[in-house]
Amino acid sequence: MSSMRSKVRHRIGDQxxxxxxxxxxxxxxRSLGALARxxxxxxxxxxxxxxxxxxHFAPLRQRPIRLLEIGIGGYDSPTWGGASLxxxxxxxxxxxxxxxxxxxxxxxxxxxxxHRGDQSDQAYLRELARRHGPFDxxxxxxxxxxxxxxxSFEALFVNHLRPGGYYVVEDMSTxxxxxxxxxxxxxxxxxxxxxxxxxxxxxxxxxxxxxxxVARPVRAVHTYEKIAFVQHA
Length: 233
Ligand SMILES: C[S@@+](CC[C@H](N)C(=O)[O-])C[C@H]1O[C@@H](n2cnc3c(N)ncnc32)[C@H](O)[C@@H]1O
Known about the structure:
Blueprint: H1 3-9, H2 15-28, H3 32-38, H4 50-57, E1 66-70, H5 83-91, E2 96-101, E3 112-116, H6 122-132, E4 135-140, H7 146-160, E5 161-169, H8 191-202, H9 209-212, E6 218-224, E7 227-232
Parallel strand pairs: 1-2, 1-4, 2-3, 4-5
Antiparallel strand pairs: 5-7, 6-7
Helix pairs in contact: 2-3, 3-5, 6-7
The structure holds S-adenosylmethionine (SAM).
């Protein structure tokens, strides 16, 4: 990244930059990749997730959806971050966009609502979802700690995502990193192991329910490099 671009990226949330971004965004709002570039979201270039998002989210674009993204960005700066929330707000023109971060965030923009809380606190997540859900889309781009990814999924997926909605887990390569509670393939408790376990739920109709417990309502699981989309049944 050039040093100029790097300086700009570190000022995501600067009011002058936001004004320029909001002028540019309407000209490119049909393309999620272009919106990511305008708002300096790394869901575009660095991670290359926008192609996959567009594949799954295009049919939802004109609907009055509710989206929750865990992880607003900007870490301990109250005013930095929010790149992807702005991108989603402009992509889903009738959407209500909610962001959750463990740090305080002061972002006051149309159709964007920010909440402060810890994604590993299941009681907090359930209360947030009772107040503002159910959601059509939930995206986990928070701590990327494997135990947190599982805690959030368990709290939100079954009861707080609408039928047909998507739960997305980003940056799943932390499944293999010890500092995020991951380990080699097969490591118990990793995000990849969670996603693998959902394949049983997709095929739940012939489960011997008495011994295997209750299946989760999963219609489909799509995995790509570092990202998974789980569709509610
Ligand atoms: C990668 S950034 C999010 C980037 C943003 N989604 C985007 O695409 O523009 C991760 C954010 O997660 C937040 N975070 C870290 N641990 C968290 C936790 N336990 N609960 C909620 N948010 C957390 C961090 O403060 C940081 O702002």
